[in-house]
Amino acid sequence: MKIKVSFFDKDLLKRFFTIVSVISVLLSFVLIVVNIPDKFKLITGIVLFVILLIIYFVMWVQANLSDNVKLNINNSTVRVKVGDIFEEPELKVIPFNEYFDTCVDNRIISDRTLNGMYIKNEVNDVGELDRLIDTNQKLNEKVTSIIKNRPEGNKKQYSLGTIFQNDDYLLTTFARFDENNRAFLYINDHINFLINFWNEIDVVYGGRTVTIPLLGSGITRFKEYDMISEQELLELLLWSFKVSRIKFTYPSHVSIVIHESKKDKINFYRLRSVEIGL
């Protein structure tokens, strides 16, 4: 078991003392009608202490083993869990670069990224996908520039957070590309992306559940901010949903899927306090 929640975590202690308060009230009522002989009071106190210690230990273990959490944000349900985005129902978000590139050659797009796996495994005709993106009127309104001298890949550059729906997949422009086709973002880019992204989601989701990967946890480089963690990326994603004021009506909800390889980097228990603090 990887220790992600300390034994004396303040949120865990707060929850435990709430349980202790309830037990204390119940015991007070019991002791009104039950008289414990003096010779048993010490042993009774020790037994109660051991029981409470066991309860706290079990809560601590559960907090560290937790791999999912259900939050209520903006009166919408947000689920954070471990899983495979390609196995999720309804709408699934796949991050692309700012050009909506589709060439999986391990130079422009790596076959190990969600972008690459989606194109290789879920797209039957890459040329047709390129054509649909290139000729989409709404997407053309989001073009920020056309890089005619770009040696490889698509020429049209789109604003970050732009979404193109292809069947059950929402393809979104997430990362910028440098001259060597390396994905990068400035932290301001990331924040602007999130704001635009949720605005676009609000338009297209149509009462359906939307599943999102942990955006930014792959090969994307954050310039001038090298130490951002997966936990911070997740909390930033939740914060951006909060300020977007989007409301998902039951039974639709937002689902954030954490890849199995990243789960030990996420403190799921801590997200309960993030919900309160947002």
Structural class: alpha/beta
Radius of gyration: 24 Å
The proportion of residues forming helix, as a percent range, comes to 40-55%
For the report, how would you describe the main beta sheet? 9 strands, mixed
Low-confidence stretches: none
Task: Please report the total strand number as a whole number.
Answer: 11
Return the average pLDDT rounded to an integer. 88
What's the order of the H and E elements? HHEEEHHHEEEEEHEEHEH
Beta content comes to 15-25%
Number of domains: 2
What does this structure look like?
There is one protein chain. By secondary structure, the protein is of the alpha/beta class. It has two domains: 56 residues; 210 residues, Leucine Aminopeptidase, subunit E, domain 1 (3-Layer(aba) Sandwich). The chain has eight helices and eleven strands. Strands 1, 2, 3, 6, 7, 8, 9, 10 and 11 form a nine-stranded mixed β-sheet that branches. A hairpin with a 5-residue loop joins strand 7 and strand 8. The protein is elongated and about 90 Å long. The mean pLDDT is 88.
